[in-house]
Design goal:
Blueprint lengths: L2 H4 L1 H4 L2 E10 L2 E11 L4 E5 L6 H9 L6 E6 L2 E2 L7 E4 L11 H10 L4 H6 L1 H14 L15 H13 L5 E5 L7 H18 L3 E4 L3 H7 L2 E6 L17 E7 L13 H15 L11 E2 L10 H10 L1
Helix pairs in contact: 4-6, 4-7, 6-7, 9-10
């Protein structure tokens, strides 16, 4: 392992290297290599069953890898922490609390009774700041049932941001919304990202969403080939088969119909989703400047032979 790879856990906000995860005899994630710089909006997309949610849980610290290295801001990940904020598909809101009270939860729950009373004005001011950032300040006294689905998800985002996480982690956050609201939320998230320059790790099954939102699109897939052979005895899990750098500007949703957008979506479907297009591990489309790859001895020999 060279010094460049060894130093990535210090120079990148998120670093995964040679990561493996299995459940029983099923290998789900196979030698995952991924470094993400601060300020990146990193979309993760891949076919059903490729392990996107497993990867999400590993980064979150809800599960542990079988082997490999995983760092957030240079520190090994061992459990969920305040440095990773979370927004799920279903809104993590309490129906009996107001929008403001829901947004304050990350501050009020860890505090004792006396601290909550003493710092209530401070917590309220901080929550109002993030409700303003998410366009909900005028709805602070409403309850979740009085809000649309998109507005409820904005409250969940404010709830996560008040923790001031180093990484905002989003797992299919717009999957339960109707198509029009979903597009509105995509534009909202891009505008929020541009204003705050947060680091976002965004997992989605929606190809258009991944490309439209991401300043980077990581393609996770089980559809590839290597030199391990075939058959029931070969354990092969998903890997990063594509890694694309994208423009970092907020665009109209009309860009989704542009030739460049459509062409990229077709390429990603081909290299990540098509079972009949099996690229060798030495031929993956790893175009992003932060992308890197560690190869096992058999793969490395194949790469030297190809050269």
């Amino acid at each position: 392992m060279n010094a460049t790879v060894i130093g990535r856990e210090r120079s990148h906000l998120l670093h995964l290297e040679d990561l493996y995860k299995s459940y029983g005899d099923k290998l789900v994630l196979d030698n995952i290599d991924l470094s993400v710089s601060a300020g990146t909006l990193c979309s993760v997309v891949g076919p059903s069953g490729c392990g996107k949610s497993t990867l999400f849980r590993l980064v979150l610290g809800q599960e542990q890898a079988d082997s490999g290295r995983l760092f957030v801001d240079g520190n090994p990940v061992a459990a969920p922490g305040q440095d990773r904020g979370i927004v799920y598909q279903r809104y993590s809101l309490y129906p009996h609390l107001s929008v403001l009270e829901n947004a304050m939860l990350a501050r009020t729950l860890p505090a004792g009774f006396l601290e909550r009373q003493r710092r209530r004005a401070e917590f309220r001011e901080e929550a109002m700041h993030y409700l303003e950032r998410t366009g909900l300040a005028t709805h602070a006294d409403k309850y979740p049932h009085e809000l649309s689905g998109g507005m409820q998800q904005r409250v969940a985002i404010a709830q996560a941001l008040i923790k001031r996480p180093k990484i905002l982690m989003m797992d299919e956050p717009f999957g339960a919304l109707d198509p029009e609201t979903r597009e509105h939320m995509q534009v909202f998230l891009l505008e929020l990202w541009e204003a705050e320059r947060m680091t976002i790790f965004f997992v989605t099954h929606d190809m258009e969403e991944a490309i439209y939102l991401g300043t980077r699109v990581v393609v996770l897939s089980q559809h590839y080939t290597d030199d391990r052979g075939e058959g029931a005895t070969v354990r092969r899990g998903s890997r990063v088969v594509g890694d694309y750098v994208l423009p970092s500007a907020v665009n109209s949703t009309k860009v989704k119909r542009s030739a460049e957008f459509v062409s990229l979506a077709e390429e990603i479907r081909r290299v990540g989703f098509d079972r009949d297009v099996l690229r060798h591990v030495t031929e993956f489309n790893l175009r992003h400047p932060d992308s890197f790859q560690t190869l096992n001895p058999e793969e490395a020999r194949a790469a030297r032979g190809a050269a």
